[in-house]
Write a structure and sequence with these properties.
There is one protein chain. The chain has 3 domains: about 35 residues; about 425 residues, Pectate Lyase C-like (3 Solenoid); about 50 residues, no CATH class. The protein has 2 helices and 47 strands. The protein has a 21-stranded parallel beta sheet that branches. A 13-stranded parallel beta sheet has the order 4-7-10-13-16-19-22-25-29-32-35-40-42, with no helix packed on it. Strands 26-30-33-36 form a 4-stranded parallel beta sheet, with no helix packed on it. A hairpin with a 5-residue loop joins strand 37 and strand 38. It is globular, with a radius of gyration of 32 Å. The chain starts with 6 loop residues before the first helix and ends with a strand.
Length: about 625
């Protein structure tokens, strides 16, 4: 069968062999090409060095001895995932930093510093560029350890950092950390470009000249602004805005965290978040917001200031927690915190507000979008000390819960405690007529009002307004809300040292701050609160991080006492017992509410409670 081949068979075999060899070679070339493509796609992880004094743009930039020199050289490069750009500490550059390219998931492009100097690399816009650090339709960047400034003699469109998005889908992972941004002269007008100038600005554009079908919905995701210091900038410290905010084309940014930043002497608003799903603002300290806009209310274009420490707008599920805001200027707004227009399910908790000219908290309807409503806000476990004008301003919103806050007003102030805006008609900032609805379904529970001032309350405006188990101490103006059993909740609340808060600047270590607002072990506020309907208290904390429920009933105010309670009768205005040194068996007590006389029997207090379902002379301690 395998005998000698003919010449024809040999020729056929030779051709077949050549064909097979060529096929193997071609397959090998395909494999090599595939391997090369895979290698090209892998992060190269180059580190580039930039030295403003010792560098040279002719260098390759790949080590300290071969550092580049200018921003122009940095901006001319297209960077790949995993690359690192290092500016020499203590160096100074003038102009704009706009590096090209995007990172990838798990391989962001990073900007940082190198060298032994403690000074951050300084990038100075000199007032001649709009944006000192700029990203446009880019993602997966981490920028840290830079000093940024952009000062000028006149107002204009200027920013420290500007992150721009347009027609790009979802842009993810922009981290700005440990930046020092200062002296940025922006546009301080209330409308137009004003709120988009200042320290840090994220903006999602929407071309309004085109139909929605012609556009790609765009938003940010996974944004972190942390450990930045921002001072003397205008108009805004941090501002994030999207033009995809309205319900008809809603496409809000997600995963936004603004944490542990220090902002001071901000011309207008400290932090603005617009068009966000569940953003978080926490551990920030903001002082002297509205510093220019407020005091210059008469200047054209300023529209009376209208700025606060921080606020969300057109957002869902915002958390503002563990922040300190103080010395916000102006009484046209001027509050520390604001749950602004078209916000749903916002939560304001564990914050410390003090010495703000406009007050502690503003909750308001949106006058830009007719018919919109802010609903389901919760304000709890906050401390307000010596805030002015109005501690709470509630304006035409619905379903707000205000509970377990501690409010202290000093004797020199005329601060109004609670204020509800009446229903009526008005106009939006563009002069268009609007109908302003009434405040509806507002519940105040377990709040401590320590009012040594002369201010009162305006709470008759609205519908379904309820007050329960709030403690009113100090001055009692005629406008103070009526509550069942309020006469029992007017004695000294026995705080450790009320009014001693001062400035904290670090709300991370919760257990050590503001000790003056904790309850003494003799406080009548212990276990005197009511449970909030729909709240199971599991995992809920008080202001200091302790459990919000110890025992069967919560305490009143922002502190939930833990430890051994020392009982001290708190009869106050209810009883007088003459020359008696104390309560013993059959001590006659005078009930000053109805001039009746009751008897008391010395008992073990832990075994009994005082039945206070009615104010009468037959009240008794009941086991």
């Amino acid at each position: 069968m395998f005998g000698r081949m003919s010449k024809m068979n040999k020729r056929i075999f030779s051709k077949l062999l050549v064909f097979l060899l060529l096929g193997n070679m071609l397959l090998g070339m395909v494999d090599l090409a595939s391997s090369a493509a895979i290698a090209a796609a892998a992060p190269v992880n180059h580190t580039y060095y930039v030295d403003s004094t010792g560098g040279n743009d002719a260098n390759n930039g790949l080590n300290e001895g071969q550092a580049w020199k200018t921003l122009d050289k940095v901006n001319a490069m297209h960077y790949e995932p995993g690359d690192l750009i290092q500016f020499k500490a203590g160096g100074i550059w003038t102009g704009q930093l706009w590096p090209r390219g995007s990172g990838a998931p798990g391989a962001p492009i990073k900007i940082g510093k190198y060298g032994s100097s403690a000074s951050k690399p300084l990038i100075d816009g000199g007032g001649t560029v709009e944006n000192v650090v700029y990203l446009s339709n880019q993602q997966h960047w981490e920028i840290s350890e830079l000093e940024i400034t952009n000062q000028a003699a006149e107002e204009g469109v200027r920013r420290g950092v500007y992150v721009f998005a347009d027609n790009a889908g979802i842009l993810s992972h922009i981290y700005l950390t440990n930046l020092y941004i200062h002296d940025v002269r922006g546009d301080n007008s209330f409308t137009g470009t004003g709120k988009g100038t200042g320290g840090i600005y994220f903006y999602v554009n929407r071309d309004k000249s085109k139909a929605l079908s012609e556009l790609t919905q765009t938003r940010f995701d996974d944004i972190l602004l942390e450990n930045n210091t921002i001072e003397r900038v205008g108009r805004s410290g941090i501002s994030m805005l999207t033009e995809w905010q309205k319900d008809s084309f809603k496409y809000w940014s997600t995963g936004v965290m603004v944490r542990n930043n220090r902002l001071s002497y901000i011309d207008g608003d400290g932090i603005i978040l617009i068009g966000m799903e569940q953003p978080v603002m926490e551990y920030n300290v903001i002082s002297n917001a509205n510093y220019v806009c407020g005091p210059n209310q008469s200047r054209p274009g300023y529209n009376g200031g209208w700025a606060v420490g921080m606020f969300p707008f057109f957002s869902e599920g915002t958390k503002m927690q563990y922040n300190e805001v103080y010395a916000t200027r102006s009484t046209q707004d001027g509050q520390a915190f604001d749950i602004d227009g078209n916000n749903n399910n916002a939560l304001m908790q564990y914050n410390y507000s003090h010495d703000n000219e406009g007050g502690f908290a503003l909750v308001m309807v949106d006058n830009y979008a007719k018919g919109s409503r802010t609903t389901n806000a919760t304000i709890r476990y906050n401390i307000s000390q010596n805030d002015k004008n109005r501690v709470f301003s509630i304006s035409n919103v619905s379903n707000v819960k205000v509970y377990n806050n501690t409010i202290y007003v000093g004797s020199e102030l005329d601060t109004m405690i609670w204020w509800h805006k009446p229903a009526g008609t008005g106009s939006d900032p563009n002069g268009q007529s609007i109908v302003v609805p009434a405040v509806d379904n507002i519940a105040y529970n377990n709040n401590l009002i320590y009012n040594l001032g002369s201010g009162g309350y305006t709470v008759n405006n609205g519908t379904n307004i309820s007050f329960s188990n709030n403690w009113y101490y100090g001055n009692h103006p005629q406008s103070e809300p009526a509550e069942n059993g309020k006469a029992f909740r007017q004695t000294d609340p026995k705080l450790v040292n009320p009014g001693s808060g001062g400035t904290v600047t670090d709300l991370v270590y919760r257990s050590d701050i503001l000790p003056g607002y904790k309850l003494q072990n003799t406080s009548p506020l212990i276990d005197a609160g009511v449970r909030i309907g729909g709240l199971d208290y599991i995992g809920l904390k008080d202001f200091w991080g302790g459990p919000a429920l110890v025992g069967s009933q919560p305490d009143i105010g922002a502190h939930e006492f833990q430890g051994t309670r020392s009982f001290e009768p708190q009869f106050g205005a209810l009883f007088s017992y003459g020359a008696e040194e104390g309560i013993s068996d059959d001590t006659a007590l005078k009930n000053t509410l109805d001039d009746g006389v009751v008897s008391a029997i010395a008992v073990e207090v832990s075994d009994y409670h005082l039945e206070t379902s009615s104010v009468a002379s037959n009240m008794a301690l009941t086991r």
